[in-house]
Amino acid sequence: MNTATACLPCFKKMIRREARLACPGDEPLQARIVESWERCLSELDLRVPPPVIARHLVDTVAAVSGSRADHYAEDKRQANDAVLRLLPGLRTRIMAEQDTLGDPLALALELSVIGNYIDRGVELDVDWEAELADVARTLSPDVLTRFKAHARSGARVVVLGDNAGEIALDTLLVEVLLRRGCEVVYAVRSRPILNDAIMADAAYVGMTRLCQVVESGVDTPGTVLDRCAPEFRQRLDQADVILSKGQGNYESLQGELAGAYCAFKVKCQRLVAETGLGLGDSAFIVTTTPPVRPDKGVQP
To answer: Pfam families from the entry (predicted)?
Structure first.
């Protein structure tokens, strides 16, 4: 997906928030950061996915402020802790689903998608804990059926992680996939970007004790393929199933990599139009690539 003009208001909110985090209390410096970003934005190629633009935004903040600290480190710890406190009860519900011949994979996916609310790039004012307590079964049944057929015993599954907090809920999903006999690899970002999960978060929530965790090589809040490490691209090519978590991963893969299962919360009006779902709905979508026409090549 390219970056549409509809994305620009979100970046305006983001730059102001990032400026406040980088230099709290220094309003003149915050203003310089915003001004520098506005100049930078006018020169950027918007044909790239929104996560690439977000990387430029974060780099602008660092360059002007002189701070390359992980400004979300404490926020991520709090999010991980908040979810970890809920995991025992949620795990019990999933096991009960399995014991009663229900659908533990569907429930684990629903819970995991609710965790995608914990997003500092695009935020909605929601009570995600209340939604976890009373989870609705809203994911596309057709896509669920297709996913279950692919996530069979022996299948090589690569899960593209997204945010801190959300990664703790993803441990429940990985546990279910492992019980199905899948070989699971979980991918995190290679450097701090917003509140996206990195290797430290995977260790903190116990993901590294469940399955192999790897860094994708990307430094963007989405798995932008041409920014992935070569060995990770090879891993994607060899996977039987790619499960992509989060809106940023969907924005990066849609139109670029066909057949990936994308699970996320719809958090902006552009994605409402793109998916046909409502704001705050849970999406479970299979990515496609543009058709190739012999006379025109790949459509933009």
So the answer is: ARMT1-like_dom
Q: Where does residue 187 rank: exposed (0-12), middle (13-18), buried (19+ CB within 10 A)? A: buried
- 133-154 pLDDT per residue, tens: 999 889 999 999 999 999 999 9
Q: Which residue has the tokens 């049944």?
A: 141
| Radius of gyration (C-alpha) of the chain in whole angstroms | 19
- Provide the whole-model pTM: 0.92
Q: Is 138 in the same domain as 209?
A: yes
> Is 298 inside any structural domain?
no
254 and 1 in contact (C-beta within 8 Å)? yes
Bridge partner list, 283: 264
| Ramachandran sector of residue 197 (left: φ over 0; alpha: ψ -120 to 50; beta: rest) | beta
The separation between CA 161 and the C-alpha centre of its own chain, rounded to angstroms, equals 6
Please name the helix (run of DSSP H) or strand (run of DSSP E) that holds residue 132, with its range, or none.
Answer: helix 128-133
Q: At residue 103, what are phi and psi to the nearest 5 degrees?
A: -130, 80
| Type of residue found at 99 | D
